[in-house]
Amino acid sequence: MGEKKDRISWKVEGVEKTFLEACLREVTINGREGSSLKALSWRNSNKHVDSLRRTPLPYPDLCTQLFEGATATSIHSWGPTSTLPRPTQESSQYSLHDFDDIDCTQQETVGLSDESSAQSKKRKNTDTTKSQNKSKDKGKDKGKDASNSRLLEIGEDIATVAKIFVEKHSSSNLDACMEKLEKLGWGIFDPRYTTAVALFGESADKRHVWLTIDPAICENWVKTVGAHYGILLMDSDEEIAFFMLLCCYWLNLAFNRIGRAIDNDSEMSGHQHTQELLHGTSTQCKDLMRLSREAYVLLCNHFRRNNWLQSSRHISIEEKMAMFLATIAHNKRFRIIKRRFQHSTETVHRCFHEVLNAMMIFAKEVIVPTNSNATVNSSERHRKLKEIFPGAIGALDGTLVHAVVPADQQTRYRGRGKGECFQNVLGICDFDMMFTFVWAGWEGITHDSRVLKEVACNPTSGFPFPPPDKYYLCDAAYTNTRGFMTPYRNTRYWLADYRRRRPLTKEEKFNHAHAQLRNVIERAYGVLKARFPILKRMAPFPFSVQRDIVVACFAVHNFIRKCDIHDELFMAFEENNAQPQGGQNDVENVHDMEWGSQGNEYMDNLHDQIANQLG
Question: Is the pTM for the entire model greater than 0.85?
Answer without folding.
Answer: no
